[in-house]
Structures are given as structure tokens and as C-alpha cells.
Design a protein that fits this description.
190 residues; single chain
């Protein structure tokens, strides 16, 4: 059991470290990060549209077939616009990012309120607060709107989440050390 906890802790810490690195890249290269986000979303829309068109024929009525086909074509067109005109697409991505940051922040804070402090509850509240603040700042267009701020905000979010995941991974290590020191399992017991 101890080695399983240790492996999980190592995996969690590695994921946290990767998020920290991605966050720093996005912060120091915000134009690249913002444009890349718009293009990646566009690519996924095109792929989603292709799948919708391919599976439109699996329906019980012709009306549903036509509707699924139309939504698939719409997704392909929207994705194509996002890939070929990333500046225009970023306006839409910024709106989606605002909704994401606010929803993520509120849900993280509500979830963290149910966690004990030793389980990382405080750090999850901090991460949720940062996400909520980023969403509000983007909504208020502060300090600047556009791809650079999107890249910086995404970078800050990745960086903070990476640090939180590192803290959680470290908690797993402490649990493993406590279990190893007290194999009878009476650590924290009554």
C-alpha cells in the first residue's frame, strides 16, 4: 500500500510540475499562448463537426439526420474560421474563458469548503479564488483585453493549479511517510 501511495504522490507531483512549466510558458509568451488556444479550439471544433457529419446518418428520423448534419457543418465552418482567423476567434474564446474561470473558481471554493485543511482545502480555496478573480478581471477588461491577457490569465491559472497539485502530491508523500512509520495504522486514530 505504501508504494502505491508513493507512486500516486509522484505522479501527482509530476503533473503539478508540468502545469507549472506550461503556466510559465504561457505567462512569458502570452501572444503565442492566446493564439494557440484559439487555434486548438478551432481544430477541435472541426474534428467535432466531422464526427457529427459522419454519424448524422445514425438517427431515427430524417429530421434528426438533417439537424445533426447541419450542426456538424456549422461546427466545421466555425472551427475553420477559428483556425484561419485566430484574432476574431479569440473574442469568442475570451467570453468562454470568462465563464470557465468564474464557474471553476466558484465550484473549487465550494468543494474546498468541504475539505479538511490537512487535505489541501486551503490551497484549493486559494486556487479557486485566483480563478474567480481572473474571470472577473477578464470580464472587466483589466488590464487589457485580447490574446495577450488570455495567455497571461491561462498561464496564471495553470501555474496556480500546478502549485496546488504539487502541494497535494506532497501531502500524499507525508501520508506515505506516516504510514511507513506506523504500519499498524494508528496514525491519527483515537
Amino acid at each position: 500500500m505504501s508504494s502505491l501511495i508513493q507512486q500516486a504522490g509522484t505522479t501527482i507531483r509530476n503533473c503539478g510540475l508540468a502545469l507549472v512549466v506550461l503556466g510559465l510558458v504561457a505567462i512569458f509568451m502570452p501572444s503565442f499562448a492566446g493564439t494557440a488556444i484559439g487555434i486548438v479550439v478551432g481544430i477541435f471544433l472541426v474534428l467535432s463537426g466531422l464526427v457529427r457529419v459522419a454519424f448524422a446518418w445514425v438517427a431515427s428520423t430524417w429530421g434528426i439526420v438533417i439537424l445533426r448534419f447541419a450542426f456538424g457543418v456549422l461546427a466545421i465552418i466555425a472551427g475553420g474560421v477559428m483556425v484561419t482567423q485566430p484574432d476574431t476567434a479569440l473574442r469568442v474564446v475570451v467570453i468562454v474563458a470568462i465563464v470557465y474561470f468564474v464557474a471553476d473558481g466558484v465550484s473549487a471554493i465550494l468543494f474546498a469548503l468541504r475539505l479538511p485543511p490537512a487535505a489541501g482545502g486551503v490551497s484549493v480555496i486559494l486556487a479557486g479564488s485566483v480563478s474567480l478573480a481572473l474571470g472577473i478581471m477578464m470580464w472587466r477588461n483589466w488590464p487589457l483585453p485580447g490574446e495577450q491577457m488570455l495567455g497571461i490569465y491561462i498561464g496564471v491559472k495553470l501555474l496556480v493549479d500546478g502549485v496546488v497539485i504539487l502541494v497535494i502530491g506532497q501531502s500524499a508523500r507525508k501520508i506515505d511517510e506516516a504510514l511507513t512509520a506506523d504500519p499498524a495504522g494508528s496514525v491519527g486514530g483515537s
